[in-house]
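pls design
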């Protein structure tokens, strides 16, 4: 008898946790294939630390082949489309059929059709983005240190982050430590007053999902760390040398980083189209694409129906929980049992504000400062898939307590 073929698209939070929670008998009795365009799992929550030079890029990734069993097949390739009538996935060089499909291809940066944003702004979505951004920050300081022209140094050392959500805020905290602490010590001819770091936020407050006290705390902490926060400002255009806001003001900046939006990764279906809302594929209560029996869609690319119609946010903890349930539900589907409904369990919110400072909102507890920062680090460490990487990160973080960030430009 032919083995059932389970095909997992995307080895991110959703895909990897689906795989990990497949029952052992499914791993033994079925053929399992994972497809991803990169050969590693990326722990995205620590991307700001790579950009800010407090972690190196290898410490936040894990090779997929270290995660999977020997009898699971991994294909490094890009998924182009799929056909749910013939159960086929199309890759650039071949087509693969499946019995059960899990699609967890994540999301991409969304620029809200802002002219110039894609062209001129740096983003922080992938490992390459973090590495490029870190290189840009180092190069800019090296260049600025070579001129005696004060105005030119001020021009070069102007940095703007667009987006006051967790990614923008965490990046602002990390960048602030790198610019105003490490670089100021490493470049004695640069005056701290020549550097500007601006965080632009479209809403009334940064970190809008946190409670008011924590929002205020976060804003004060960043301001103390030399970050200039500009609320209620929407960016309507990005230029090579700055951004234009909706009130018409032009804010000069030599380096612009866009963290303001994400959009689901689109997956074209050659047999017609999925039921899509805001680019995300609508699922039923079991996380299957609507009107399908064997296609699960999880993580950022799925829109799980909620009462307010907005769907669940795009977060790693949701993708992980959806992956865990999908792995178990695949076992139930194969053995003819009824599937379990997805119920999201909110575990809390955490955001780092740079070294030794963070905010945390967990099950009614509101924490800030060193305690929240310690909690943030511990929780992130234990969310990592392997002990090897946990120890590695713990080791680097400990060394960082006593030494400068590594600003080697590779
Ligand atoms: C900088 C940053 C910080 C974040 N911080 C947090 C945080 O602190 N807490 C939190 O809960 N969430 C955080 N998130 C959000 C979190 O990363 C996502 O919600 C989560 O990764 C979604 O999981 P996923 O499995 O849907 O997608 P991903 O984890 O993005 O995985 C998608 C996978 O699909 C692969 N892929 C994509 N397209 C193709 C294709 N066409 N062919 C083949 N492979 C493909 C990708 O290579 C990737 O491996 C952060 C995100 C970013 C960018």
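designed seq:
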């Amino acid at each position: 008898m032919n083995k059932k073929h389970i095909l997992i698209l995307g080895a991110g939070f959703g895909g990897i946790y689906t795989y990990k929670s497949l029952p052992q008998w499914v791993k033994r009795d079925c053929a399992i294939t994972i497809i991803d365009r990169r050969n590693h799992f990326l722990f995205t929550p620590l991307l700001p630390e790579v950009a800010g030079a407090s972690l190196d890029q290898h410490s936040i990734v894990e090779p997929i082949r270290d995660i999977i069993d020997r009898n699971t097949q991994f294909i490094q390739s890009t998924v182009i489309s799929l056909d749910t009538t013939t159960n086929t996935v199309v890759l650039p060089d071949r087509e693969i059929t499946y019995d059960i499909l899990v699609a967890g291809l994540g999301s991409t940066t969304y620029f809200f059709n802002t002219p110039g944003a894609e062209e001129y702004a740096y983003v922080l979505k992938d490992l390459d983005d973090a590495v490029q951004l870190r290189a840009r920050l180092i190069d800019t300081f090296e260049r600025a240190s070579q001129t005696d022209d004060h105005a030119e140094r001020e021009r070069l050392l102007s940095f703007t982050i667009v987006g006051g959500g967790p990614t923008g805020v965490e990046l602002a905290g990390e960048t602030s430590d790198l610019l105003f602490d490490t670089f100021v010590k490493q470049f004695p001819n640069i005056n701290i007053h020549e550097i500007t770091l601006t965080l632009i936020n479209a809403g009334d407050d940064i970190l809008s999902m946190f409670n008011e006290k924590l929002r205020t705390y976060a804003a004060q902490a960043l301001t103390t760390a030399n970050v200039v926060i500009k609320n209620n400002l929407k960016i309507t255009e990005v230029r090579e040398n700055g951004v234009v806001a909706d009130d018409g003001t032009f804010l000069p900046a030599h380096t612009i980083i866009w963290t303001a939006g994400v959009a689901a990764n689109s997956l074209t279906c050659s047999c017609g189209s999925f039921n899509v809302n805001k680019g995300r594929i609508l699922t039923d209560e079991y996380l299957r694409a609507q009107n399908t029996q064997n296609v699960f869609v999880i993580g950022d690319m799925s829109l799980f129906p909620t009462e307010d119609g907005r769907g669940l946010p795009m977060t790693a903890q949701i993708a992980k929980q959806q992956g865990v349930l999908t792995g178990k539900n695949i076992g139930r589907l194969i053995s003819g049992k009824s599937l379990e409904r997805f119920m999201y369990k909110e575990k809390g919110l955490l955001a780092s504000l740079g070294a030794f400072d963070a905010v945390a909102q967990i099950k009614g507890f509101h924490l800030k400062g060193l305690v929240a920062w310690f909690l943030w680090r511990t929780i992130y460490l234990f969310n990592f898939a392997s002990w090897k990487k946990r120890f590695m990160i713990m080791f680097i973080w400990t060394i960082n307590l006593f030494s400068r960030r590594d600003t080697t430009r590779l």
